[in-house]
Amino acid sequence: MKFALLLVVLFTLSSCVKDTTNEYEKNTPVVSGDSTTDSAINTEVTPSTERNVLQTYPEYLAKNEGELSELDFEMAYEMCVRLLTDYYKAVWNGSDIVLDTFIDDDNLKQYTQKKIQSQHDVKGNLNDIVQNIEIGSWEVEYTDDVDGGFLYLKLPVEINKDIGSYGEVTEFLVRNINGKLVIVDWYTGAKDSYDFLVRGENLTIDNPNIWNDSDWVKKLNNKQVEFSGSTR
To answer: How far is CA 22 from the centre of its chain?
Structure first.
């Protein structure tokens, strides 16, 4: 039996509102960052950095190891916010990002690595550092399926840079794999965004198994290569 639980979570961007009782509102972080610029992007864990990674990258564990439910809404949200924070800093600032923390599927991980590098090649030399991001009113929905269910999250984000800011909306699909929450797909559909240009526009993000489709992945890899060539 398939069912969906939809929770629309309102988040105020004004720091002067303090008297909320909504657990999702009061736990919504505005993630601050530094203003340092690195020349290279690291997307993997090496033995020399493993200990540091364990300290700075928490594991996002499901409430119940053997199932996914609405109890995992908040933890999934925190994971997606952390990925977005690290993603925008990797693109604009050249900071490190450890994709193993968020993504288990090798195909999605490879796509994301190429996405980050491509965007950094375009934006990283602008010397316009991302300071923090803010999340607006977000949505989360649980859907049951034969593989244990998945969460759909929709997060509007404001990216605050040294000079100015801009906004995008990103959609995520999250599963429980061996007790750990992992992102099994994510898509930013802003006009002229990387996903918009490579994957296509106005997509419906509702297939948590899409990265298991080898033919689809092969075609997408080819489009990535073509896109990278056209931006050089």
So the answer is: 23
